[in-house]
Amino acid sequence: EALGLGGGSSNPNVAKIAIEQQKKKTDVVEPQVISEELLIEGVEEPVRPDGEPWEPIDFPTVTSLRLSFQNIIEVSNLNNFDSLTTLRLDNNIIDRIANLGRLSQLTWLDLSFNNIREIEGLDQLSKLLDLSLYHNQIEEIKGLDGCPNLNILSLGHNNIKDLVQINYLRRFQNLRCVCLDGNKVCQNDSYNQHVLAYLPTLKYLDYMLIDRKAVQQAQEGYNLDELTEVREREQAEQAKRKARKEKEAVIEKLKKNFLDCTEDLFEDLFSREIEPENITVLTCYHTLKDTYRDDLAEDIKNLRGWMEERNESRLKKASAFEKAVTRAENESEEEAFQMIRDFRSHKKKVLAQIDRDENATLKPEMEAMIQQLLDQLMGLENQLMANEIQLQESIHEAILDFEAKISEIIKAMSEKAGEFFRLLEEREKTFYTSLMEGSNQEIEAFAQNQDIATTDNDTNKAKYLSNKDEMVQACVNFNEAHMSLLQNKEDDMTSQMSSWRDKFFERHRERQYHRNRQRVMDVKKTIDDCRAEIMAASEVGDEFEEGDAGAAY
Question: CA-to-CA distance for 6 and 333, rounded, in angstroms?
């Protein structure tokens, strides 16, 4: 009989295992991996009605698994436990957290009493609430970023020494219970105050309920300068995250309008990777750059206004088209349903009239009625198929017609994009010409007044202004980089437009293909079922019972 596995002193199986091991003093428990046998024995929930182990195991339905006290050397073979919420791997010889990425539903993980040195491999466990790493060899609190909802964390009896390690836990806003008992860090005189100052939302520390007055005192009197700096840094990070989310929302909205390539366009044009250091020493450059920025902002504003209006129209038309197609499909389907209902009602009445002579054979007039019913069934099939063909043809024509309209809209938008980028190219030529003229004037002025212009603070300026060929080449390279970037942006914008159009209509054609195939199969099944019922009724007479012909419809 398979032995159920235990995992704590409250479970009588633990004592039973211990007794069995005592009996086998000459035996050595060899390190082992997680086998199917261990998995079968370890299933705790759901429980079989007879209390026996699950065999074979239905991995996706298991919610609780205990693999304690098994001398397991590594975490493995857990990929199919899609519903697992509780996993106990305590009291083994595991030295590395790994292969837990598929356990996305896990809320409770016990890895206490192992040989783990580093917190890792938890990146996918976003639902984890309770984590025990008690009695391992961990030196650094880290690797928990993938578990933002942690509520209980046990790190007692590890090798954590420094108070600063505790600061990492500030990011877990739902953390209410922390155990660090048995670590060297607890021997620090400031341990309690540090925890209460840096983790003010905790309710329990090392199994003890926290006094809220002690928290307030720690907040007001412990490491005030450092704590203030930490709070300010966190606020700055929070502001950055908020700005990043807002930026992502802006980009997402612009993407819907094929305008995301216009966001940060100026920053792209004048990034450090593109902007030569040579030209930054030119006095004229900064004025030209500011003018470029202002003109570009106005151009982008005008483009967005026009494009957003056209895109709103495009999206409304697309939505109306999809609704019209769905409406036509539903109307056709309802018409088919009604035809089938009518036929079934008629069929039932006809079959109820079947009568036989004294030899249990159909009377001639009954045979004629059956044949007529079969002919009507064939007519129904032809009508259903004709209606489906008519629907398919009308939808096909609607798609072609709408595709032509959308292509006109996309064409107008592409032309507008082209106008925008031609305007930018003209601005770039003006910028480049002005930059070349300004650089030549400043280089000549520098050459004539070199002794006066050179000071201890402008060695870079002297270096670049004294080399005309290098400055000219820098301006040329800058212009070429700008023109290339603008071309890439235009290609990206027009490509997005074409891609949306192609995918939109490809999706609808594919959907119609599969819908049509399904409808044809449904019609065939319905007709075959009706025919089978008619033939069966003609053989058994009044024993006929109405079937479910048309259910597929």
Answer: 58
